[in-house]
Structures are given as C-alpha cells and as structure tokens.
Design goal:
It is built from 8 helices and 5 strands. 5% of the residues are buried.
Length: 203
C-alpha cells in the first residue's frame, strides 16, 4: 500500500498527511480567524432571524414602547429615549422589531445639523366587509362580485392603455373615476355602455 505523502504547513513548518484538516494557530495570528460561514450562509441566517421576529409576539418592553409611540402619534428618537428611559442600543433593537412587524414607520430627518429618527404610529384602518349574495346563473354575476367595477364590462377595454393621450386611458377614465367616487360613498354604481357607445358613434 502506497503511503500518502505528507504536506508541510508553511506557517508552523509541521508535516501532516491531510494539511487541509490542520488548524494552525500561527496562521490564525497572521491572517486572522478563518470565516467558518460564507456570506450567503450568514445572509440566509439573518433572513431566518427576521422571519422569527416578524411572526413572534411582542415582549413587555416592546409593547410599552409601541404604546408610547401610539399615544404620541409621532416622536423623535431622542424624545422617546427620555420618555421611555431606555438606552440607545436597546431602543434601537425594539424599534427594529416594531418596524419588521409593520407596527410603526420611521424616517431619517436632519434636525439641527444631525440626523435623527422620526418615528410615526401606524394608523389603524377599520374595514367593514359587507356580505353580498350573488346568483351565478345570472350573466352579470362577475359584475356584481367585483362591486360593479366598470372595467369588467367595458366594451373599450381592448383599446384602453396608458399610451392614449385622452380617451380610453385608465389614468383618467371618467367611468372608473365615477365608480371610485360612488363606491367610497357606499353607493351602488351603474353604467349603461350601450348608450355610451351609441353616443360616441353619433359624434
């Protein structure tokens, strides 16, 4: 059986059959400790940690900070430090969690020649859903499901695009605008495209 030739470590001068397995203390002193994990592995780990932070329940001190922000509506970082009594690093970590969970908004602003965090409470939107019974045997049931959104029955939808300068452009469609306005008022939107088509042909 042929013996494997030993390799010499260029740092300590010792010989090893498998040099790749040798952890040289002198090499670590010269080059510093070797990175055990690649940048990709570390990035994946950070992403996994953020996922855990996103899904976990808020701790007592995090809830307290959130209550303070919600009470104030908006507040600067230094003022929040004074009110909460938290240390800067500790408060930064709490704000990171609240940001990840979309509990607050934070903007960096230049105040008195120094950058600071301007913290905002998130507005809660109370959305009430109204159950609508739809008869699928009717041809217009799709029209009713989507709250009578005109685009679903519009005869000009094949012509409609953002390149049109005036007519048939979703950015300034009169029928879409009417639908939005009436929907916001809680009204039922109705439109007769037959009459509209007839009027356009007469022009």
């Amino acid at each position: 059986m042929v013996k494997r030739k030993k390799e010499v470590c260029p740092y300590c001068g010792k010989s090893f059959v498998y040099l790749s397995r040798h952890k040289c203390s002198i090499k670590e002193k010269v080059e510093g400790p070797t990175e055990e994990k690649s940048l990709t592995e570390r990035r994946v780990e950070r992403m996994e940690e953020k996922k855990k932070d996103y899904n976990r329940s808020l701790r007592k001190d995090e809830k307290l900070i959130l209550e303070l922000i919600n009470r104030e509506g908006e507040i600067f970082f230094k003022d929040l430090i004074n009110i909460s009594g938290k240390k800067r690093d500790e408060l930064d970590q709490i704000l990171d969690i609240l940001l990840i969970q979309s509990k607050i908004k934070v903007k960096r602003e230049l105040i008195e020649a120094s950058w600071t965090k301007h913290i905002y409470a998130m507005e809660e939107i109370d959305v009430k859903l109204k159950e609508t019974k739809v008869n699928k045997k009717e041809k217009s049931f799709i029209w009713k499901i989507f709250s009578r959104q005109p685009c679903f029955i519009c005869p000009f939808r094949n012509k409609c695009n953002e390149t049109n300068l005036d007519q048939f452009n979703p950015h300034h469609c009169p029928w879409l605008t009417e639908w939005i306005e009436e929907s916001l008022q809680g009204k039922e939107y109705n439109i007769n495209f037959d009459d509209i088509e007839a009027g356009l042909q007469e022009q």
